[in-house]
Every structure is written in C-alpha cells, then in structure tokens.
Design goal:
about 170 residues; rod-shaped; mainly alpha
Length: about 170
C-alpha cells in the first residue's frame, strides 16, 4: 500500500510540474544536456530565469497588441460615426434649405413690402401734418400773389399785391 501512495504522490507531482512548467522544463533539461555546463544547476536556474523574462515580455507584447487593436477599432468606429453624423447633418441642412428657402424669401419680400408701405405712410402723414399746422400758410412769403377780384367772376385782377413789410 505504501507503494500505491508513493505512486499517487509521484503522479500528482508530475502533473503539477507539467502544469506549471509545461514544455519549458523539457526544453531547459534538453539545453543542459546539449551544452553540458560545469555547474548544471546554476545553468538551469539562469536558463529558466531568462526563459521567464522572455515569456513575460512576449505576453505583455501580446496584451499590448490586443489593447492597441481594440483602441484602433474603437477609434475607427468613432471616425465612421463622426463621418455618418456629418453626412446626416449635411443632408438635413440641404433639406431644410430646399423646404424653407421659399418661405424665407416670401417672408423677406413681405417684410420689405410692409416696411416700404410703413415708410410711405409715415412720410404722407408728416406731409399732411405740416400742411395742417395752425399758423402756417401754403403761400411762400415775399412772393407776389394774385388775388382774384370780386368785380367779375371768372376774371382775375392782373395787379400784383405784395404783402406788407414786417418790422422786427
């Protein structure tokens, strides 16, 4: 029974070594046998240490490569999304200009017409106010005026009368 226990323990150790060292230990021992160094234990230790540094660097390189690819893919997706949004914005702007340009032109034309009408009305009103102000006359001072005579209707007096002089 003791042999069965030892066999089981040996099998567990072997499984452990295979799981932890895998092909690495086989390669290391093959290298020691090939080189036949004067201190095989130290050589094996250095070989394993070097192997670990190389595999760690390779794993970090793989991880970095994966991360860079993910970042590149995300950047590419972002760029595509930005291009799509710009294209969509351009199309919306074109549709807006097509559908609202006639309305804007009509509104501007209407506003211009209203402005011109308001400007004309205000000028007309101002002219009417000036004509109707009390104390103002439609005659120009210092100009001779023809006054119709009351003698004969339809005939006018050809004499010219001037307004009296005003002394200040």
């Amino acid at each position: 029974m003791a042999e069965a226990g030892q066999e089981c323990a040996l099998r567990m150790e072997t499984d452990y070594l295979k799981r932890c060292f895998g092909n690495c230990l086989t390669q290391a021992l093959a290298e020691v046998a090939k080189v036949r160094p004067s201190d095989p234990i130290e050589y094996l230790a250095h070989w394993l240490h070097h192997y670990r540094k190389i595999t760690k660097a390779q794993e970090e390189g793989r991880q970095e490569k994966i991360q860079l690819k993910e970042e590149y893919d995300n950047s590419l997706k972002g760029t595509r999304m930005t291009e799509m949004l710009k294209q969509e914005e351009y199309q919306i702007q074109q549709e807006y200009e097509k559908s609202y340009q006639p309305l804007v032109s009509a509104a501007i034309s209407t506003k211009e017409t209203i402005f011109m009408e308001e400007s004309t009305k205000s000028l007309e009103n101002e002219a009417l106010k000036q004509e109707c102000l009390p104390g103002t006359s439609s005659t120009i001072p210092e100009m001779p005026q023809q006054i119709p005579s009351s003698d004969s209707p339809g005939q006018t007096d050809r004499s010219v009368k001037t307004p009296p002089e005003i002394n200040y």
